[in-house]
């Protein structure tokens, strides 16, 4: 596997950066291609990421004729006249998000057998809310030998209240409801921009989804769905990561075509820390101060501060003047990067889901390993400001969600390279 080497301390990022389509949008969009029984779903602005390749393999296995032209970032998914009901372990176990194929399969076939996705390093990630919603729609759910089996002669519309506004459950249930008999209402639904993107594609495919982006989504079932054209929404987490990078390095970076509406909580916190944001016709310009000020952050479902920006924000807090707090309320185990950051001199006290960070200008480069996707980006950001050399290992996490991350930072002036790691370095 590769490693990234960052030589930090003097970097001041400058220039402009292009942002890809969102990983967290495109994965459910790919699952939605299973719902079309005729025509082609054409997706543009598709990010070139390992998670996308894995989801492509799963939907292809299930019966969609899919091609991915990486040069144009376009996927063409030819409708499966029929699709398979069985999503096997070898595909689902590789990626948590693959559970969102269950709603479309169940909706089309009246039956689904999907391997249990399991947890991951940031938490146990149960799927009880997804399954409870399917049951309310008339599905019988059983668990056997690591698989969840669902069957329903007629999936029917239902009134579903989610105990927590789960992104995945909202997406799965929305898709299940598209071909169900009657009307489904999802209350306390997730409101993330990726939910809106999915609803937009579903409607282009012939579904009748209203209210996405609010806490109540209403879906009227239709008889069949067809092909459509759709461009994947911009990745607000990638955009946010570059905002933090500019903020930490006294930078001046134009984030091309950034959508401030999607990054309100982050922009608000960075502004509190002394960062300037200028809305320009080509995007948002981010200007970092001489020294960031401390701030207190708590992660929440959208429109609260996103848990997917938590690690990157702790990197900014690590170099801010004064004491900051970070409270993680969405995932129970998302502070592993702080242990790695300690190796670089981070002053942090962790009490359960709360971290007290004392900012310093004395961070030193070190060898660190990515513990999850956003941790990998956060460690690289910290490497930009630490004195000396930082080596970041386990880049398989980074490749799940960032396309050409080091090239983009390099183009902004970072001293960074990606090289092959020796086997013995990786442990
Ligand atoms: C591919 C994708 O889009 N991933 C995003 C999605 O993940 P994902 O869809 O898995 O996240 P959820 O919103 O479902 O999970 C949020 C919380 O709810 C809990 N929960 C969820 C479902 C359930 O049935 N029961 C339950 O208890 C989870 O364990 C977690 O603690 O939203 C998360 C929260 O914004 C982001 O961090 C992920 O990047
Ligand atoms: C946690 C994330 O993704 P996933 O849900 O795919 O693990 C993320 O994008 O930060």
Provide the list of bound ligands, each named once: uridine-diphosphate-N-acetylglucosamine, phosphoenolpyruvate
CATH uppermost class of the largest domain: Alpha Beta
Q: Beta-strand percentage?
A: 25-35%
Low-confidence stretches: none
Q: What is the CATH superfamily of the largest domain? A: Enolpyruvate transferase domain
Distance N terminus to C terminus?
11 Å
Overall pLDDT: 97
Largest sheet: 4 strands, mixed
At the fold tier of CATH, the topology name of the largest domain is UDP-n-acetylglucosamine1-carboxyvinyl-transferase, Chain
Give the CA-based shape. elongated
CATH hierarchy: architecture of the largest domain: Alpha-beta prism
The total number of structural domains is 2
Relative helix content: 25-40%
GO molecular function: UDP-N-acetylglucosamine 1-carboxyvinyltransferase activity
Protein name: UDP-N-acetylglucosamine 1-carboxyvinyltransferase
Main location: cytoplasm
EC number: 2.5.1.7
Description:
The protein is 31% helix and 28% strand. With 427 residues, the chain is an alpha/beta fold. It folds into two domains: 205 residues, Enolpyruvate transferase domain (UDP-n-acetylglucosamine1-carboxyvinyl-transferase, Chain); 206 residues, UDP-n-acetylglucosamine1-carboxyvinyl-transferase, Chain. The strands form six sheets. The protein has a four-stranded mixed β-sheet with strand order 22-23-1-24, with helices on one face. A four-stranded mixed β-sheet has the order 2-15-17-16. Strand 8 and strand 9 form a beta hairpin. Helix 6 packs parallel to helix 7 and helix 11 packs parallel to helix 12. The protein is elongated and about 65 Å long. The model has no long low-confidence stretch (mean pLDDT 97). It binds uridine-diphosphate-N-acetylglucosamine and phosphoenolpyruvate (PEP). The site of phosphoenolpyruvate has 9 residues, from helix 12.
């Amino acid at each position: 596997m590769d490693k990234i080497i960052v030589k930090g301390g003097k970097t001041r990022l400058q220039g402009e950066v292009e942002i890809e389509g969102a990983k967290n949008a495109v994965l459910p969009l790919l699952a939605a291609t299973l719902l079309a029984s005729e025509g082609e779903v054409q997706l543009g602005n598709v990010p070139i990421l390992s998670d996308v390749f894995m989801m492509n393999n799963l939907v292809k296995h299930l019966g969609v004729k899919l091609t991915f032209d990486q040069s144009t970032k376009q996927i063409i998914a030819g409708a499966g006249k029929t699709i398979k009901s069985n999503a096997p372990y070898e595909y689902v176990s590789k990626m948590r998000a693959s559970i969102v194929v269950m709603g479309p399969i169940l909706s089309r076939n009246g039956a689904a057998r999907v391997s249990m996705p399991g947890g991951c390093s940031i938490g146990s990630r149960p799927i009880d809310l997804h399954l409870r919603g399917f049951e309310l729609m008339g599905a019988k759910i059983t668990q056997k030998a690591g698989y969840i089996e669902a069957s329903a002669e007629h999936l029917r519309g239902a009134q579903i209240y989610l105990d927590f506004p789960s992104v995945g459950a909202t997406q799965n249930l929305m898709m299940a409801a598209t071909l169900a008999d009657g009307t489904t209402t999802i209350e306390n639904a997730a409101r993330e921009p990726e939910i809106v993107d999915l609803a937009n594609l579903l409607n282009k495919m012939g579904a009748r989804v209203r209210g996405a982006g609010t806490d109540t989504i209403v879906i009227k079932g239709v008889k069949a769905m067809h092909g459509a054209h759709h461009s994947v929404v911009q990745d607000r987490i990638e955009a946010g990561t570059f905002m933090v990078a500019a903020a930490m390095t006294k930078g001046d970076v134009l984030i091309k075509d950034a959508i401030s509406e999607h990054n309100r909580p982050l922009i608000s916190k960075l502004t509190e820390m002394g960062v300037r944001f200028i809305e320009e016709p080509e995007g948002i310009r981010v200007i970092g101060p001489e020294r960031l000020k401390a701030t207190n952050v708590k992660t929440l479902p959208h429109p609260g501060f996103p848990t997917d920006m938590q690690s990157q924000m702790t990197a900014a807090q690590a170099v801010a003047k004064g004491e900051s707090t970070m409270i993680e309320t969405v995932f129970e185990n998302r502070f592993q990067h702080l242990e790695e950051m300690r190796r670089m001199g981070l002053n942090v006290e962790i009490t359960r889901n709360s971290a007290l960070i004392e900012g310093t200008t004395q961070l030193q480069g070190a060898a660190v390993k990515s513990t999850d996707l956003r941790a990998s980006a956060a460690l690289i950001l910290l490497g930009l400001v630490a004195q000396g050399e930082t080596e970041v290992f386990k880049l398989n996490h980074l490749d799940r969600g960032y396309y050409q991350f080091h090239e983009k930072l390099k183009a902004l002036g970072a001293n960074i390279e990606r090289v092959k790691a020796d086997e013995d370095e990786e442990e």
